[in-house]
Inverse folding.
């Protein structure tokens, strides 16, 4: 199924050595990407990550990095022409990006 | 009267205000904190319908500030919300029967998830709204509950540092709030976003309204200038891409939106192409060419519309969408143009044959 799946890789990077096991990333992630572990949380379902950036922003020790942004083709395609990538979200009437 | 600036002013009639939405500064005495009702009125539902259709899109706002639900005490919980009526109303209606505070922050009338992505639902606005409303003199505890979908914009530890308030993230869906209030715990299921049929269906109207602006002229023009058969097909492609695709998305094969779209497009247009082939208009070769052109043009349109649905889903990552664009945009454009050229060629050929 690799062939027709563009969503297997993403920019999420997690360093368990820095993790202080506060559990925030588990609390904020809408896709159960992290699960609890002893000593540090475990990156369980990396491929489910949608790059929303919630875990990175809420990790108190910066153990997580992710190039966050909205996965909106419309904004990206328009951005390719106008040079300005703006999510239509909330301003376009398009439910568009991110509902 | 400030109609339409606040969803809760539907109760405004002289002397009987249950909501003071125009209050600029919230004064820190509990009995002067504006009350918001937890029951939604017909006017609220009308507002929601408009919001869902993308009409009067920047008008669905609530005055930022502190509101009370029921008769909260200094121990009552504080829920944070965006100043978008759909967000605020979902929260207040889920608090029916409870006493609580709602801290509405200024997200410029944009929902929690979008605003968090843009950073307007963010640490700075929450901290400053806590200060502006003197929240620390109103409640005796130091906890606020922020919707989980606001987390991409909020740094919980920074809010704590700067305001003294500890952040707890509430459930993803406001409808889970009563359960959360009862059990005081949030299960993993309450933390996970879903994309149910209902979630997908509510997205259709706004997409449709958006695309019809371009589609109606295209449909009419092609009908008048070329043929009404073409108009029907354009309409069918739009219906497939904006209505059928969101409905059938989970059941279509492959993982990528574009390939799902192509698949749906071919399924839908195959009968059309067969119809063209079997029709009595013109030469066999012309009909075959036209049928092939249909199978090139319209599935590409459906696939493009499907690809554009990525932005509405709560799971398409930016990396993945980028990759999809990279992979499929050229094939889509190629098939589309190839089909248009082919049908133009067939048109010319049929004129030649007739003459
Ligand atoms: S970026 Fe979002 S989806 Fe990805 S792991 Fe972090 S919280 Fe989960
Ligand atoms: S938020 Fe950071 S420190 Fe806390 S559990 Fe997750 S990775 Fe570890």
């Amino acid at each position: 199924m690799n062939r027709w799946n563009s969503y297997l890789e993403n920019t999420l990077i997690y360093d368990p050595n820095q993790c202080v096991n506060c559990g925030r990333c588990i609390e904020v992630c809408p896709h159960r990407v992290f699960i609890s572990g002893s000593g540090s949380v475990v990156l369980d379902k990396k491929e489910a990550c949608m790059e929303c950036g919630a875990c990175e922003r809420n990790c108190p020790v910066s153990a997580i990095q992710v190039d966050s942004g909205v996965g909106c083709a419309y904004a990206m395609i328009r951005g390719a022409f106008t040079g300005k990538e703006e999510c239509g979200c909330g301003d376009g009437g398009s439910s568009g990006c991110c509902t | 009267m400030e109609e339409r600036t606040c969803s809760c002013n539907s109760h405004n009639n002289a002397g009987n205000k249950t909501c003071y939405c125009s209050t600029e500064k919230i004064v820190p005495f509990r009995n002067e904190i504006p009350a918001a009702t937890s029951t939604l009125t017909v006017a609220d539902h009308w507002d929601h319908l408009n919001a869902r259709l993308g009409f009067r899109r920047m008008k669905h706002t609530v005055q930022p500030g502190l509101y009370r639900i029921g008769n909260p005490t200094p121990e009552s919980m504080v829920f944070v919300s965006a100043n978008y009526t759909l967000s605020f109303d979902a929260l207040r209606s889920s608090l029916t029967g409870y006493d609580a505070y709602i801290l509405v922050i200024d997200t410029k009338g944009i929902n929690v998830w979008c605003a968090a992505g843009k950073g307007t639902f963010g640490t700075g606005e929450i901290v400053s709204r806590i200060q502006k409303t003197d929240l620390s003199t109103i409640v005796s505890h130091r906890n606020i509950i922020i919707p989980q979908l606001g987390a991409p914009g909020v740094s919980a530890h920074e809010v704590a540092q700067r305001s003294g308030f500890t952040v707890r993230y509430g459930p993803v869906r406001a409808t889970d709030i009563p359960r959360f209030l009862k059990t005081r715990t949030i299960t993993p299921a309450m933390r996970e976003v879903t994309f149910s049929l209902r979630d997908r269906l509510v997205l259709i109207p706004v997409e449709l309204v958006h695309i019809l602006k371009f589609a109606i002229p295209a449909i009419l023009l092609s009908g008048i200038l070329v043929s009404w058969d073409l108009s029907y097909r354009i309409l069918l492609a739009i219906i497939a891409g904006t209505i059928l695709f969101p409905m059938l998305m989970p059941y279509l094969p492959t993982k990528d939106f574009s390939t799902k779209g192509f698949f749906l497009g071919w399924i839908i247009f195959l009968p059309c192409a067969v119809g063209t082939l079997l029709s009595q208009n013109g030469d066999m070769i012309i009909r075959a060419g036209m049928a092939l052109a249909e199978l090139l043009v319209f599935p590409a349109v459906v696939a493009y519309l499907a690809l554009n649905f990525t932005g509405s889903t709560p799971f398409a990552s930016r990396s993945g969408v980028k990759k999809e664009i990279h992979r499929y945009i050229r094939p889509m454009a190629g098939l589309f143009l190839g089909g248009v050229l082919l049908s133009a060629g067939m048109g010319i050929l049929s004129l030649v044959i007739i003459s």
Observations:
- The first strand of chain B starts at residue 65 and ends at 69.
